[in-house]
Design goal:
The protein contains seven helices and no strands. The protein is mainly α. It has a single domain (3-113), classed as Four Helix Bundle (Hemerythrin (Met), subunit A) (Up-down Bundle), CATH 1.20.120.
């Protein structure tokens, strides 16, 4: 799988990331670094502990990373959760959004791992 196919599968914006990073090797480098980013793990832990303020911080970090990497679909879900947590909401609707984020994150990881 190449980078364009990867971005197609994750519903990301290939043209945006290519414009930002200038070449596919650099994009691959940052995709591999994304796999090591701890924001998602921190978000999971905070949501498990029902710690809404820590969940907000983790979601906000994950939002920035996903925006910078042009993960368009994933970013939209993370942004939604971030803004709800910012407003102090931390209930069932936010947990449903978080479940969607978990599903999308799994797709991201599996797809990135398939890169050549």
């Amino acid at each position: 799988m190449d980078v364009r196919e990867c971005y197609s599968q994750i519903k990301g914006n290939y043209d945006e990331i290519l414009g930002r990073m200038r070449n596919e090797e650099r994009i691959k480098k940052f995709l591999r670094l994304f796999l090591k980013d701890e924001s998602y793990a921190k978000l999971c832990a905070a949501m498990e502990e029902n710690n809404c303020s820590e969940a907000f911080l983790a979601a906000h970090s994950l939002k920035g990373v996903s925006q910078n990497l042009a993960f368009t679909d994933f970013f939209a879900s993370v942004e939604d959760l971030t803004e709800r947590l910012r407003a102090g909401a931390c209930g069932e609707e936010e947990r449903q959004i978080f479940d969607t984020i978990k599903e999308k994150y799994d797709v991201l990881v599996k797809t990135i791992e398939k890169l050549e």
